[in-house]
Amino acid sequence: MSDGFDERWDAADFTAAGLTHRVFRRGTGPGVVLVPEIPGATPEVIGLADLLVEAGFRVAVPSIIGTPGRPATGGYLAASALRMCVSREFAAFARRADRPVTSYLRALARDLHTESGGAGVGMIGMCFSGGFALAAAVEPAVIAPVLSQPALPPAFGAGAHATGLTEAAEATLATRVRDEGLCALGLRFTADRSVPASRFAAFERALGEGWRAFEIDSSAGNPDGIPTSAHSVLTDPHAGEAGHPTHAARAAVIDFLRQRLAA
Prior knowledge:
By secondary structure, the chain is α/β, with parallel strands linked by helices.
C-alpha cells in the first residue's frame, strides 16, 4: 500500500461521533487500538503495529492526524501540532474536558471488540494521544488502556499535576477499578519535561491500585546513555535492541495486554 502500511493491512473509513478517519486493521486475536503520536502513523508507529500483530493481537490503527507512512520531520511535526491545536476534533485538549476524538475512539473500540470478541480490547495512546487511551476506558469494551508518554494537558502550571480527564470520567474509571479490576499502564522517561512525575502521581491518585507505571531512567549520566530529551518510549530508535530499557518497555506492554485481555 502506498500509505506506508503493506498489503497485509486492510484499510477502510470508519465513521463515528461525527468524524471519519481511515482505519488500518490486521491480525487475529484480542483487539488492540493503537492511536498514533504526533505527527501521525510514521514508519516507527507502523513498525510498532506490526510488532503487536506478531505478538498475537488484532490491531486497528486509526489515522486521526497526519499522513500514514510519512516520516517525521521538524516541519511535519510542527504542522501536525498546529492542526491539533486548532481543530474542533481535538478541542479543549488543554482543559479537563472531553474531546470529540475521544468519543470516536470509544466507538472504534466497541467496533473492534465486536469484530475480535474476547473479554474486551486494549488501547495504546502515545504523546498527545496518551491520555485518550485512559479517557476511552470509560467505554466498557476498553479493559487494557496503555498511556505512553501522555503529554496532555501541557505540563505547566496546574496542567503538570492533571490527568486531563473530566471529573465524571475519573469517577467512572474509579468505579471500574473497584468493581471490575480495571488497570492502566503508563510509560515515561524520568527526565521528560512534557510528562512530569507529578502527572503520573495524579494518575495514581485517580486510579489507586488500578495504576501501573513503567519509568525509564533518562537522568543525566544514566547507565544506558539515554538522552535527557528522550520522549517516545515505544517508538524509540533503540526499542528493537534486546537489553535496552525501551525494548523491555515494549515487552511489558505486550505482557500487560496479554494478561488483561485474556481475563
